[in-house]
Write a structure and sequence with these properties.
Strand order of the largest sheet of chain A: 1-2
Strand order of the largest sheet of chain B: 6-7-8-3-9-10
Distance between the termini of chain A: 45 Å
CATH topology of the largest domain in chain B: Rossmann fold
Number of domains of chain A: 2
Number of strands of chain B: 19
Number of strands of chain A: 2
CATH superfamily of the largest domain in chain B: P-loop containing nucleotide triphosphate hydrolases
Oligomer: heterodimer
Radius of gyration of chain B: 24 Å
Protein backbone atom coordinates (compact mmCIF):
# COMPACT_ATOMS: atom_id res chain seq x y z
CA UNK A 1 0.00 0.00 0.00
CA UNK A 2 2.68 2.36 1.14
CA UNK A 3 4.77 1.36 -1.82
CA UNK A 4 1.92 2.01 -4.23
CA UNK A 5 1.37 5.43 -2.66
CA UNK A 6 5.04 6.28 -3.04
CA UNK A 7 5.05 5.10 -6.63
CA UNK A 8 2.06 7.32 -7.36
CA UNK A 9 3.67 10.33 -5.72
CA UNK A 10 6.89 9.65 -7.57
CA UNK A 11 5.08 9.49 -10.89
CA UNK A 12 3.23 12.70 -10.06
CA UNK A 13 6.43 14.61 -9.24
CA UNK A 14 8.16 13.21 -12.31
CA UNK A 15 5.32 14.48 -14.47
CA UNK A 16 5.40 17.89 -12.81
CA UNK A 17 9.17 18.08 -13.27
CA UNK A 18 8.80 17.20 -16.94
CA UNK A 19 6.26 19.97 -17.48
CA UNK A 20 8.38 22.46 -15.54
CA UNK A 21 11.33 21.70 -17.78
CA UNK A 22 9.08 21.88 -20.84
CA UNK A 23 7.81 25.36 -19.84
CA UNK A 24 11.16 26.68 -18.69
CA UNK A 25 13.36 25.35 -21.50
CA UNK A 26 12.56 28.12 -24.03
CA UNK A 27 13.65 30.70 -21.45
CA UNK A 28 16.72 28.68 -20.61
CA UNK A 29 17.58 28.42 -24.28
CA UNK A 30 17.08 32.17 -24.73
CA UNK A 31 19.30 33.00 -21.76
CA UNK A 32 22.07 30.69 -22.95
CA UNK A 33 21.82 32.04 -26.49
CA UNK A 34 22.13 35.59 -25.18
CA UNK A 35 25.67 34.94 -24.00
CA UNK A 36 26.88 32.92 -26.98
CA UNK A 37 29.43 34.00 -29.54
CA UNK A 38 28.41 33.97 -33.20
CA UNK A 39 30.72 31.10 -34.06
CA UNK A 40 29.27 28.95 -31.27
CA UNK A 41 25.67 29.74 -32.22
CA UNK A 42 25.85 29.13 -35.94
CA UNK A 43 27.74 25.83 -35.95
CA UNK A 44 24.88 23.32 -36.24
CA UNK A 45 26.85 20.47 -34.69
CA UNK A 46 27.16 22.33 -31.35
CA UNK A 47 24.79 21.54 -28.48
CA UNK A 48 22.51 24.63 -28.20
CA UNK A 49 22.27 24.24 -24.39
CA UNK A 50 26.00 24.28 -23.75
CA UNK A 51 28.72 26.88 -24.16
CA UNK A 52 31.20 25.41 -26.67
CA UNK A 53 33.08 28.70 -26.79
CA UNK A 54 33.46 31.00 -23.77
CA UNK A 55 30.36 33.17 -23.05
CA UNK A 56 30.38 36.85 -23.97
CA UNK A 57 28.57 40.03 -22.91
CA UNK A 58 29.00 41.62 -26.33
CA UNK A 59 25.41 40.89 -27.43
CA UNK A 60 24.02 42.83 -24.45
CA UNK A 61 26.32 45.74 -25.36
CA UNK A 62 24.82 45.75 -28.87
CA UNK A 63 21.29 45.67 -27.46
CA UNK A 64 21.73 48.48 -24.97
CA UNK A 65 24.23 50.74 -26.76
CA UNK A 66 23.64 50.25 -30.47
CA UNK A 67 19.84 50.20 -30.40
CA UNK A 68 17.21 52.36 -28.63
CA UNK A 69 16.22 49.40 -26.44
CA UNK A 70 15.84 51.47 -23.25
CA UNK A 71 13.60 53.93 -25.11
CA UNK A 72 11.46 51.04 -26.37
CA UNK A 73 11.23 49.68 -22.83
CA UNK A 74 10.09 53.01 -21.50
CA UNK A 75 7.62 53.57 -24.37
CA UNK A 76 6.06 50.15 -23.91
CA UNK A 77 5.84 50.58 -20.16
CA UNK A 78 4.34 54.05 -20.50
CA UNK A 79 1.76 53.01 -23.11
CA UNK A 80 0.88 49.90 -21.08
CA UNK A 81 0.29 51.77 -17.83
CA UNK A 82 -1.76 54.55 -19.44
CA UNK A 83 -3.88 52.08 -21.41
CA UNK A 84 -4.50 50.02 -18.25
CA UNK A 85 -5.68 53.16 -16.43
CA UNK A 86 -7.95 54.18 -19.32
CA UNK A 87 -9.35 50.66 -19.61
CA UNK A 88 -10.14 50.45 -15.89
CA UNK A 89 -11.68 53.92 -15.90
CA UNK A 90 -14.05 52.99 -18.73
CA UNK A 91 -14.66 49.28 -18.27
CA UNK A 92 -15.46 49.31 -14.52
CA UNK A 93 -18.29 51.88 -14.67
CA UNK A 94 -19.54 50.44 -17.98
CA UNK A 95 -19.68 46.88 -16.69
CA UNK A 96 -21.27 47.95 -13.41
CA UNK A 97 -24.01 49.97 -15.02
CA UNK A 98 -24.71 47.29 -17.62
CA UNK A 99 -25.12 44.62 -14.94
CA UNK A 100 -27.03 46.63 -12.37
CA UNK A 101 -29.02 49.32 -14.05
CA UNK A 102 -30.32 48.38 -17.42
CA UNK A 103 -32.33 45.23 -16.81
CA UNK A 104 -32.52 42.76 -19.67
CA UNK A 105 -30.93 45.17 -22.12
CA UNK A 106 -27.72 45.09 -20.12
CA UNK A 107 -26.97 41.50 -21.02
CA UNK A 108 -27.68 42.02 -24.73
CA UNK A 109 -25.53 45.14 -24.76
CA UNK A 110 -22.76 43.22 -23.01
CA UNK A 111 -22.73 40.59 -25.73
CA UNK A 112 -22.84 43.27 -28.44
CA UNK A 113 -19.85 44.98 -26.85
CA UNK A 114 -17.98 41.71 -26.70
CA UNK A 115 -18.57 41.19 -30.43
CA UNK A 116 -16.70 44.43 -31.09
CA UNK A 117 -13.65 42.75 -29.58
CA UNK A 118 -13.82 40.09 -32.27
CA UNK A 119 -13.29 42.58 -35.12
CA UNK A 120 -9.61 42.02 -36.01
CA UNK A 121 -7.06 44.85 -36.07
CA UNK A 122 -6.02 43.80 -39.60
CA UNK A 123 -9.43 45.05 -40.69
CA UNK A 124 -9.29 48.25 -38.68
CA UNK A 125 -5.77 49.60 -39.02
CA UNK A 126 -6.39 51.47 -42.29
CA UNK A 127 -9.51 53.37 -41.13
CA UNK A 128 -7.82 53.97 -37.78
CA UNK A 129 -4.77 55.36 -39.56
CA UNK A 130 -7.04 57.89 -41.31
CA UNK A 131 -8.47 58.92 -37.96
CA UNK A 132 -5.05 59.16 -36.36
CA UNK A 133 -3.67 61.30 -39.17
CA UNK A 134 -6.75 63.59 -39.09
CA UNK A 135 -6.14 64.36 -35.43
CA UNK A 136 -2.41 64.69 -36.00
CA UNK A 137 -1.13 61.86 -33.85
CA UNK A 138 0.86 60.00 -36.50
CA UNK A 139 4.28 58.93 -35.17
CA UNK A 140 3.30 59.60 -31.57
CA UNK A 141 2.86 57.02 -28.81
CA UNK A 142 -0.39 58.80 -27.95
CA UNK A 143 -1.90 57.25 -31.07
CA UNK A 144 -1.40 53.84 -29.45
CA UNK A 145 -2.76 55.11 -26.13
CA UNK A 146 -5.87 56.17 -28.04
CA UNK A 147 -6.34 53.03 -30.12
CA UNK A 148 -5.47 50.17 -27.74
CA UNK A 149 -8.54 50.73 -25.52
CA UNK A 150 -10.71 49.85 -28.55
CA UNK A 151 -9.44 46.30 -28.10
CA UNK A 152 -9.16 46.17 -24.31
CA UNK A 153 -12.33 47.99 -23.21
CA UNK A 154 -14.90 45.68 -24.88
CA UNK A 155 -13.28 42.50 -23.63
CA UNK A 156 -12.68 43.85 -20.12
CA UNK A 157 -16.20 45.23 -19.84
CA UNK A 158 -17.56 41.83 -20.70
CA UNK A 159 -15.17 40.14 -18.28
CA UNK A 160 -16.09 42.44 -15.41
CA UNK A 161 -19.82 42.05 -16.07
CA UNK A 162 -19.47 38.40 -15.13
CA UNK A 163 -17.91 39.47 -11.86
CA UNK A 164 -20.37 42.14 -10.89
CA UNK A 165 -23.23 39.78 -11.71
CA UNK A 166 -21.87 37.23 -9.26
CA UNK A 167 -21.96 39.71 -6.36
CA UNK A 168 -25.38 39.56 -4.65
CA UNK A 169 -27.25 42.83 -4.94
CA UNK A 170 -28.24 42.43 -1.28
CA UNK A 171 -24.70 43.38 -0.29
CA UNK A 172 -24.89 46.73 -2.04
CA UNK A 173 -28.35 47.41 -0.71
CA UNK A 174 -27.18 46.56 2.79
CA UNK A 175 -24.34 49.06 2.39
CA UNK A 176 -26.77 51.72 1.19
CA UNK A 177 -29.04 51.14 4.18
CA UNK A 178 -25.94 51.17 6.37
CA UNK A 179 -25.36 54.78 5.37
CA UNK A 180 -23.37 54.81 2.15
CA UNK A 181 -24.14 56.26 -1.25
CA UNK A 182 -24.30 53.93 -4.25
CA UNK A 183 -20.82 55.05 -5.26
CA UNK A 184 -19.36 54.38 -1.82
CA UNK A 185 -21.19 51.05 -1.61
CA UNK A 186 -19.51 50.19 -4.90
CA UNK A 187 -16.07 51.24 -3.68
CA UNK A 188 -16.33 49.59 -0.27
CA UNK A 189 -18.18 46.39 -1.12
CA UNK A 190 -18.20 45.61 -4.85
CA UNK A 191 -14.59 46.56 -5.64
CA UNK A 192 -12.94 44.48 -2.90
CA UNK A 193 -15.06 41.50 -3.93
CA UNK A 194 -14.08 41.80 -7.59
CA UNK A 195 -10.31 42.16 -7.06
CA UNK A 196 -9.72 39.01 -9.11
CA UNK A 197 -11.59 40.49 -12.05
CA UNK A 198 -9.76 43.77 -11.83
CA UNK A 199 -6.39 42.02 -11.72
CA UNK A 200 -7.40 39.92 -14.73
CA UNK A 201 -8.24 43.14 -16.56
CA UNK A 202 -4.87 44.69 -15.70
CA UNK A 203 -2.92 41.63 -16.80
CA UNK A 204 -4.89 41.18 -20.01
CA UNK A 205 -4.58 44.82 -21.00
CA UNK A 206 -0.90 45.17 -20.18
CA UNK A 207 -0.05 41.98 -22.06
CA UNK A 208 -2.07 43.17 -25.03
CA UNK A 209 -0.19 46.48 -25.28
CA UNK A 210 3.10 44.66 -24.89
CA UNK A 211 2.65 42.30 -27.83
CA UNK A 212 0.37 44.29 -30.16
CA UNK A 213 2.14 44.64 -33.52
CA UNK A 214 0.00 45.96 -36.40
CA UNK A 215 -1.04 49.31 -34.93
CA UNK A 216 2.40 49.88 -33.45
CA UNK A 217 3.98 49.18 -36.85
CA UNK A 218 1.65 51.34 -38.95
CA UNK A 219 1.14 54.37 -36.70
CA UNK A 220 4.73 54.90 -35.59
CA UNK A 221 7.52 55.69 -38.01
CA UNK A 222 10.50 56.99 -36.02
CA UNK A 223 12.47 54.66 -33.80
CA UNK A 224 12.41 57.03 -30.81
CA UNK A 225 8.63 56.50 -30.54
CA UNK A 226 8.55 52.76 -31.11
CA UNK A 227 7.45 50.22 -28.59
CA UNK A 228 9.20 46.90 -27.89
CA UNK A 229 7.06 44.74 -30.14
CA UNK A 230 8.04 46.69 -33.24
CA UNK A 231 11.28 48.44 -32.27
CA UNK A 232 13.22 45.32 -31.36
CA UNK A 233 12.65 43.35 -34.60
CA UNK A 234 13.17 46.44 -36.75
CA UNK A 235 16.49 47.34 -35.15
CA UNK A 236 17.84 43.83 -34.71
CA UNK A 237 16.86 42.32 -38.02
CA UNK A 238 19.03 44.19 -40.44
CA UNK A 239 18.38 43.11 -44.02
CA UNK A 240 18.56 39.35 -43.83
CA UNK A 241 20.81 39.33 -40.77
CA UNK A 242 19.16 38.31 -37.51
CA UNK A 243 20.98 39.41 -34.36
CA UNK A 244 19.69 36.31 -32.56
CA UNK A 245 21.55 36.75 -29.30
CA UNK A 246 20.43 40.36 -28.84
CA UNK A 247 16.88 39.51 -29.94
CA UNK A 248 16.74 36.77 -27.33
CA UNK A 249 18.10 39.11 -24.69
CA UNK A 250 15.51 41.78 -25.58
CA UNK A 251 12.68 39.28 -25.23
CA UNK A 252 13.85 37.57 -22.07
CA UNK A 253 14.58 40.82 -20.23
CA UNK A 254 10.91 41.77 -20.59
CA UNK A 255 9.40 38.32 -20.20
CA UNK A 256 10.98 37.36 -16.90
CA UNK A 257 9.99 40.38 -14.73
CA UNK A 258 6.48 40.37 -16.21
CA UNK A 259 6.22 36.64 -15.56
CA UNK A 260 7.31 37.11 -11.94
CA UNK A 261 4.79 39.92 -11.36
CA UNK A 262 1.97 37.87 -12.91
CA UNK A 263 2.92 34.93 -10.76
CA UNK A 264 2.21 36.96 -7.62
CA UNK A 265 -1.35 37.40 -8.86
CA UNK A 266 -1.68 33.90 -10.26
CA UNK A 267 -4.42 32.68 -7.93
CA UNK A 268 -6.46 35.83 -8.45
CA UNK A 269 -5.81 35.65 -12.15
CA UNK A 270 -7.05 32.08 -12.54
CA UNK A 271 -10.13 32.87 -10.43
CA UNK A 272 -10.65 35.97 -12.54
CA UNK A 273 -10.53 34.37 -15.93
CA UNK A 274 -12.48 31.23 -15.04
CA UNK A 275 -15.15 33.10 -13.13
CA UNK A 276 -15.70 35.48 -15.99
CA UNK A 277 -15.94 32.49 -18.28
CA UNK A 278 -18.54 30.67 -16.23
CA UNK A 279 -20.71 33.55 -15.12
CA UNK A 280 -20.28 35.80 -18.11
CA UNK B 1 -46.92 58.08 18.65
CA UNK B 2 -46.24 56.45 15.34
CA UNK B 3 -42.66 55.99 14.23
CA UNK B 4 -43.46 55.01 10.67
CA UNK B 5 -46.48 56.21 8.83
CA UNK B 6 -47.45 55.01 5.40
CA UNK B 7 -50.03 56.95 3.42
CA UNK B 8 -51.64 55.47 0.34
CA UNK B 9 -48.42 53.88 -0.81
CA UNK B 10 -48.42 52.25 -4.24
CA UNK B 11 -45.87 50.39 -6.31
CA UNK B 12 -46.65 49.26 -9.82
CA UNK B 13 -44.23 47.27 -11.95
CA UNK B 14 -45.72 47.78 -15.38
CA UNK B 15 -49.19 46.30 -15.13
CA UNK B 16 -48.45 44.44 -11.93
CA UNK B 17 -49.69 46.20 -8.82
CA UNK B 18 -47.22 44.88 -6.28
CA UNK B 19 -48.46 47.25 -3.60
CA UNK B 20 -51.77 48.94 -4.21
CA UNK B 21 -52.67 51.64 -1.76
CA UNK B 22 -51.54 50.74 1.75
CA UNK B 23 -52.15 52.94 4.80
CA UNK B 24 -50.39 51.89 7.94
CA UNK B 25 -48.92 53.36 11.07
CA UNK B 26 -46.31 51.62 13.17
CA UNK B 27 -46.22 52.45 16.87
CA UNK B 28 -43.10 53.17 18.86
CA UNK B 29 -41.40 50.06 20.22
CA UNK B 30 -43.79 47.57 18.67
CA UNK B 31 -42.99 44.53 16.59
CA UNK B 32 -45.21 44.67 13.56
CA UNK B 33 -45.38 41.66 11.26
CA UNK B 34 -46.21 41.89 7.56
CA UNK B 35 -47.71 38.51 6.74
CA UNK B 36 -48.93 37.13 3.44
CA UNK B 37 -48.31 34.51 0.76
CA UNK B 38 -45.38 35.01 -1.59
CA UNK B 39 -46.03 37.71 -4.16
CA UNK B 40 -48.43 39.62 -1.91
CA UNK B 41 -46.24 42.73 -1.86
CA UNK B 42 -44.95 42.52 1.70
CA UNK B 43 -41.27 42.59 0.75
CA UNK B 44 -41.87 45.39 -1.75
CA UNK B 45 -43.56 47.39 1.00
CA UNK B 46 -40.59 46.81 3.30
CA UNK B 47 -38.14 47.81 0.57
CA UNK B 48 -40.06 51.03 0.00
CA UNK B 49 -39.81 51.84 3.70
CA UNK B 50 -36.06 51.19 3.46
CA UNK B 51 -35.81 53.40 0.37
CA UNK B 52 -34.53 50.60 -1.87
CA UNK B 53 -37.64 50.86 -4.01
CA UNK B 54 -39.21 54.11 -5.16
CA UNK B 55 -43.02 54.15 -4.67
CA UNK B 56 -45.30 54.87 -7.63
CA UNK B 57 -47.50 56.97 -5.36
CA UNK B 58 -48.12 57.82 -1.73
CA UNK B 59 -45.89 58.95 1.11
CA UNK B 60 -43.73 57.41 3.80
CA UNK B 61 -43.03 59.24 7.04
CA UNK B 62 -40.39 58.16 9.52
CA UNK B 63 -40.45 60.04 12.83
CA UNK B 64 -42.82 62.70 11.42
CA UNK B 65 -40.45 63.46 8.55
CA UNK B 66 -41.44 62.70 4.96
CA UNK B 67 -38.74 60.40 3.62
CA UNK B 68 -40.43 59.28 0.39
CA UNK B 69 -37.73 60.77 -1.80
CA UNK B 70 -34.75 60.33 0.51
CA UNK B 71 -32.11 57.71 -0.30
CA UNK B 72 -31.76 54.79 2.14
CA UNK B 73 -28.69 56.29 3.82
CA UNK B 74 -30.62 59.39 4.93
CA UNK B 75 -33.41 57.46 6.65
CA UNK B 76 -31.58 56.28 9.79
CA UNK B 77 -33.00 52.81 9.65
CA UNK B 78 -31.54 49.34 9.71
CA UNK B 79 -32.39 46.30 7.68
CA UNK B 80 -31.66 42.61 8.05
CA UNK B 81 -31.85 40.84 4.72
CA UNK B 82 -33.09 37.33 4.10
CA UNK B 83 -29.57 36.38 3.03
CA UNK B 84 -28.17 38.44 5.97
CA UNK B 85 -25.97 40.24 3.41
CA UNK B 86 -22.86 40.09 5.58
CA UNK B 87 -19.86 41.58 3.78
CA UNK B 88 -17.77 38.49 2.97
CA UNK B 89 -14.44 40.34 2.81
CA UNK B 90 -14.74 41.86 6.28
CA UNK B 91 -14.43 40.33 9.73
CA UNK B 92 -17.46 40.20 11.99
CA UNK B 93 -16.09 43.22 13.85
CA UNK B 94 -15.77 45.26 10.65
CA UNK B 95 -19.20 44.15 9.52
CA UNK B 96 -20.79 45.47 12.70
CA UNK B 97 -18.68 48.63 12.64
CA UNK B 98 -19.52 49.35 8.98
CA UNK B 99 -22.66 51.48 9.58
CA UNK B 100 -20.85 53.38 12.35
CA UNK B 101 -17.98 54.21 10.00
CA UNK B 102 -20.48 55.68 7.56
CA UNK B 103 -21.56 58.10 10.27
CA UNK B 104 -18.00 59.12 11.02
CA UNK B 105 -18.05 57.89 14.61
CA UNK B 106 -14.54 57.98 16.13
CA UNK B 107 -12.61 54.74 16.42
CA UNK B 108 -12.72 54.34 20.20
CA UNK B 109 -16.46 54.92 20.39
CA UNK B 110 -16.95 52.57 17.48
CA UNK B 111 -15.07 49.81 19.25
CA UNK B 112 -17.13 50.31 22.42
CA UNK B 113 -20.41 50.16 20.52
CA UNK B 114 -19.45 47.10 18.51
CA UNK B 115 -18.34 45.27 21.66
CA UNK B 116 -21.54 46.23 23.41
CA UNK B 117 -23.69 44.97 20.55
CA UNK B 118 -21.67 41.77 20.30
CA UNK B 119 -22.13 41.26 24.03
CA UNK B 120 -25.90 41.60 23.80
CA UNK B 121 -26.03 38.94 21.12
CA UNK B 122 -23.36 36.70 22.66
CA UNK B 123 -21.02 36.82 19.67
CA UNK B 124 -17.94 38.40 21.32
CA UNK B 125 -15.88 35.31 20.55
CA UNK B 126 -16.64 35.56 16.82
CA UNK B 127 -15.49 39.14 16.22
CA UNK B 128 -12.31 38.16 14.38
CA UNK B 129 -13.89 35.59 12.11
CA UNK B 130 -15.04 36.04 8.55
CA UNK B 131 -18.73 35.44 7.71
CA UNK B 132 -17.99 32.23 5.82
CA UNK B 133 -16.67 30.68 9.05
CA UNK B 134 -20.02 31.16 10.82
CA UNK B 135 -23.08 28.94 11.11
CA UNK B 136 -26.50 30.11 9.98
CA UNK B 137 -27.58 31.07 13.48
CA UNK B 138 -24.35 33.00 14.11
CA UNK B 139 -24.71 34.89 10.84
CA UNK B 140 -28.19 35.91 11.85
CA UNK B 141 -26.89 37.28 15.15
CA UNK B 142 -24.15 39.22 13.38
CA UNK B 143 -26.72 40.70 11.02
CA UNK B 144 -28.86 41.70 14.00
CA UNK B 145 -25.86 43.22 15.77
CA UNK B 146 -25.01 45.23 12.66
CA UNK B 147 -28.61 46.42 12.50
CA UNK B 148 -28.96 47.51 16.15
CA UNK B 149 -25.49 48.96 16.69
CA UNK B 150 -26.47 52.29 15.13
CA UNK B 151 -29.62 52.68 17.30
CA UNK B 152 -31.91 52.91 14.27
CA UNK B 153 -35.31 54.56 14.31
CA UNK B 154 -36.79 51.43 12.77
CA UNK B 155 -35.40 47.98 12.20
CA UNK B 156 -36.64 46.17 9.11
CA UNK B 157 -36.37 42.39 8.98
CA UNK B 158 -36.96 40.53 5.73
CA UNK B 159 -37.67 36.87 6.54
CA UNK B 160 -34.55 36.61 8.70
CA UNK B 161 -35.41 33.17 10.01
CA UNK B 162 -36.10 31.44 6.72
CA UNK B 163 -32.49 30.29 6.27
CA UNK B 164 -32.45 28.44 9.58
CA UNK B 165 -33.56 24.86 10.09
CA UNK B 166 -36.73 24.13 12.03
CA UNK B 167 -35.03 23.60 15.39
CA UNK B 168 -32.91 26.73 15.21
CA UNK B 169 -35.93 28.70 14.10
CA UNK B 170 -37.88 28.15 17.32
CA UNK B 171 -35.02 29.30 19.52
CA UNK B 172 -34.12 32.16 17.17
CA UNK B 173 -37.72 33.35 17.37
CA UNK B 174 -37.57 33.39 21.13
CA UNK B 175 -34.22 35.21 21.18
CA UNK B 176 -35.36 37.71 18.61
CA UNK B 177 -38.45 38.64 20.58
CA UNK B 178 -36.55 38.97 23.87
CA UNK B 179 -33.95 41.06 22.16
CA UNK B 180 -36.51 43.33 20.55
CA UNK B 181 -38.37 43.84 23.84
CA UNK B 182 -35.15 44.53 25.70
CA UNK B 183 -33.93 47.10 23.17
CA UNK B 184 -37.34 48.57 22.51
CA UNK B 185 -36.49 49.07 18.83
CA UNK B 186 -39.51 49.60 16.61
CA UNK B 187 -39.41 46.63 14.27
CA UNK B 188 -41.13 45.63 11.06
CA UNK B 189 -40.84 41.95 10.32
CA UNK B 190 -41.76 40.37 7.00
CA UNK B 191 -42.68 36.69 6.84
CA UNK B 192 -44.89 34.21 5.02
CA UNK B 193 -44.87 31.88 8.01
CA UNK B 194 -47.98 32.33 10.11
CA UNK B 195 -46.43 30.62 13.13
CA UNK B 196 -43.65 33.21 13.17
CA UNK B 197 -46.19 35.97 12.73
CA UNK B 198 -48.49 34.77 15.49
CA UNK B 199 -45.63 34.03 17.84
CA UNK B 200 -43.65 37.24 17.36
CA UNK B 201 -46.00 39.99 16.38
CA UNK B 202 -47.50 42.63 18.63
CA UNK B 203 -49.67 43.33 15.64
CA UNK B 204 -50.02 41.52 12.34
CA UNK B 205 -50.72 43.06 8.96
CA UNK B 206 -52.19 40.46 6.63
CA UNK B 207 -51.52 41.28 2.99
CA UNK B 208 -52.88 39.81 -0.21
CA UNK B 209 -52.48 40.97 -3.83
CA UNK B 210 -50.80 44.20 -2.81
CA UNK B 211 -53.52 45.17 -0.41
CA UNK B 212 -53.82 45.18 3.33
CA UNK B 213 -56.59 42.79 4.36
CA UNK B 214 -56.45 43.26 8.11
CA UNK B 215 -54.36 44.80 10.85
CA UNK B 216 -54.64 43.59 14.40
CA UNK B 217 -53.19 41.62 17.28
CA UNK B 218 -52.62 37.91 16.59
CA UNK B 219 -55.83 37.16 18.53
CA UNK B 220 -57.85 39.62 16.47
CA UNK B 221 -56.71 38.43 13.08
CA UNK B 222 -57.21 34.82 14.10
CA UNK B 223 -60.55 34.94 15.92
CA UNK B 224 -62.06 37.95 14.24
CA UNK B 225 -60.73 37.66 10.72
CA UNK B 226 -61.91 40.49 8.50
CA UNK B 227 -62.57 38.29 5.48
CA UNK B 228 -62.38 34.76 4.14
CA UNK B 229 -58.82 35.24 2.88
CA UNK B 230 -57.46 36.14 6.30
CA UNK B 231 -59.54 33.39 7.93
CA UNK B 232 -58.24 30.67 5.62
CA UNK B 233 -54.65 31.95 5.50
CA UNK B 234 -54.30 31.82 9.27
CA UNK B 235 -54.54 28.57 11.14
CA UNK B 236 -53.32 25.16 10.15
CA UNK B 237 -55.58 23.73 8.92
CA UNK B 238 -57.48 26.89 7.98
CA UNK B 239 -61.04 27.78 8.80
CA UNK B 240 -63.93 25.64 7.49
CA UNK B 241 -66.09 27.63 5.09
CA UNK B 242 -69.58 26.37 4.37
CA UNK B 243 -71.39 28.09 1.51
CA UNK B 244 -75.08 28.69 2.23
CA UNK B 245 -77.71 30.40 0.12
CA UNK B 246 -76.55 34.00 0.56
CA UNK B 247 -73.70 33.88 3.04
CA UNK B 248 -70.65 31.88 4.02
CA UNK B 249 -70.50 30.22 7.40
CA UNK B 250 -67.05 29.88 8.93
CA UNK B 251 -65.79 27.93 11.93
CA UNK B 252 -62.35 26.83 13.04
CA UNK B 253 -61.61 23.06 13.10
CA UNK B 254 -60.78 23.23 16.82
CA UNK B 255 -64.26 24.64 17.55
CA UNK B 256 -66.05 21.88 15.67
CA UNK B 257 -66.34 19.12 18.25
CA UNK B 258 -68.48 16.11 19.14
CA UNK B 259 -71.70 16.94 20.95
CA UNK B 260 -70.68 15.07 24.11
CA UNK B 261 -67.61 17.26 24.53
CA UNK B 262 -69.32 20.62 24.27
CA UNK B 263 -72.89 19.90 25.52
CA UNK B 264 -71.82 20.05 29.14
CA UNK B 265 -71.13 23.77 28.79
CA UNK B 266 -74.84 24.39 28.22
CA UNK B 267 -74.08 27.17 25.81
CA UNK B 268 -76.07 27.83 22.69
CA UNK B 269 -74.72 25.52 20.03
CA UNK B 270 -75.40 24.75 16.41
CA UNK B 271 -75.30 21.10 15.55
CA UNK B 272 -74.52 19.18 12.37
CA UNK B 273 -74.45 15.55 11.45
CA UNK B 274 -70.81 14.89 10.53
CA UNK B 275 -69.80 12.05 8.28
CA UNK B 276 -66.17 11.28 9.11
CA UNK B 277 -64.28 9.92 6.10
CA UNK B 278 -60.67 9.94 7.29
CA UNK B 279 -58.69 10.46 10.48
CA UNK B 280 -55.10 11.62 10.85
CA UNK B 281 -53.37 11.07 14.18
CA UNK B 282 -50.97 13.95 14.76
CA UNK B 283 -49.86 13.09 18.27
CA UNK B 284 -51.41 15.89 20.27
CA UNK B 285 -54.42 16.16 17.98
CA UNK B 286 -56.63 14.05 15.76
CA UNK B 287 -57.45 15.70 12.46
CA UNK B 288 -60.82 14.58 11.09
CA UNK B 289 -61.84 14.93 7.46
CA UNK B 290 -65.53 14.60 6.59
CA UNK B 291 -68.75 16.02 5.18
CA UNK B 292 -71.69 17.77 6.75
CA UNK B 293 -74.70 15.60 5.98
CA UNK B 294 -77.23 17.43 3.86
CA UNK B 295 -74.86 20.26 2.93
CA UNK B 296 -73.04 19.62 -0.36
CA UNK B 297 -69.50 20.99 -0.50
CA UNK B 298 -66.41 20.59 -2.68
CA UNK B 299 -64.08 20.86 0.28
CA UNK B 300 -63.91 18.52 3.23
CA UNK B 301 -64.96 19.95 6.54
CA UNK B 302 -62.31 19.44 9.17
CA UNK B 303 -62.25 19.01 12.89
CA UNK B 304 -59.26 19.20 15.18
CA UNK B 305 -59.87 17.00 18.15
CA UNK B 306 -57.28 16.97 20.97
CA UNK B 307 -56.09 13.48 21.81
CA UNK B 308 -56.68 14.31 25.47
CA UNK B 309 -60.45 14.41 24.86
CA UNK B 310 -61.67 10.86 25.63
CA UNK B 311 -63.98 10.37 22.68
CA UNK B 312 -63.78 7.51 20.22
CA UNK B 313 -64.19 8.55 16.61
CA UNK B 314 -63.93 6.17 13.67
CA UNK B 315 -63.81 6.74 9.96
CA UNK B 316 -66.95 5.80 8.06
CA UNK B 317 -69.27 6.65 10.96
CA UNK B 318 -71.63 9.59 11.42
CA UNK B 319 -71.60 11.67 14.59
CA UNK B 320 -73.39 14.63 16.03
CA UNK B 321 -70.90 17.54 16.00
CA UNK B 322 -71.56 21.00 17.41
CA UNK B 323 -70.12 24.51 17.34
CA UNK B 324 -70.80 27.16 19.98
CA UNK B 325 -72.63 30.10 18.47
CA UNK B 326 -69.94 32.49 19.65
CA UNK B 327 -67.41 30.61 17.52
CA UNK B 328 -69.40 30.94 14.31
CA UNK B 329 -68.27 33.55 11.80
CA UNK B 330 -70.30 34.90 8.92
CA UNK B 331 -68.97 36.23 5.65
CA UNK B 332 -70.61 37.85 2.65
CA UNK B 333 -70.86 35.30 -0.13
CA UNK B 334 -69.75 37.70 -2.89
CA UNK B 335 -67.15 39.96 -1.26
CA UNK B 336 -65.99 37.49 1.37
CA UNK B 337 -66.06 40.27 3.99
CA UNK B 338 -67.11 39.59 7.55
CA UNK B 339 -70.80 40.26 8.21
CA UNK B 340 -73.01 40.40 11.28
CA UNK B 341 -74.14 37.11 12.86
CA UNK B 342 -77.47 35.81 11.67
CA UNK B 343 -79.89 32.99 12.39
CA UNK B 344 -78.93 29.76 10.78
CA UNK B 345 -81.85 28.33 8.91
CA UNK B 346 -81.55 24.66 8.24
Amino acid sequence: MNLLYRAKRGLLYATVALFCFFSASPFLWMIITTFKQDRDLYRSKNNPFLFNDPPTLDNLRVLFFETKYTTFLWNSFFVGVVVVIITLAIAIPAAYSLTRMSGRWGEQAGIAIFLVYLVPPTLLFIPFFRVISKIGLVDSIWSLVLVYPTISVPFCTWLLMGFFKSIPIDLEEAAMVDGYSRLMAFVKVVMPLSVSGIIAVIVFTFTLTLHEFIYALTFISSSAHRTLSVGVPIELVRGDVFYWQSLMAAAVIVAIPVGIVYDFFLDHLVAGLTMGAVKG
Amino acid sequence: MSVVEIRGIKKHFGDVRAVDGVDLSVHKGELLVLLGPSGCGKTTLLRMIAGLEQPTGGDILIGDEVVTNLPPRARHIAMVFQSYALYPHMTVFDNIAFPLKARGIPKEERRAKVENAAGLLAIESLLHRKPRQLSGGQRQRVALARAMVRSPRVMLLDEPLSNLDAQQRASARDELQQFQRQMGITTIFVTHDQIEAMGLGDRIVVMHDGQMRQVGTPQEVYYDSADTFVATFLGSPGINLVHRADYILGFRPEHFLPKDVLAADEEKCVSFTYDVTRIEYLGADRLLYGNLVGIPSDVKTMSRLPTTVPVTVEAGQQYEFVIREQDLRFFDHTTGKRTAPREIGE
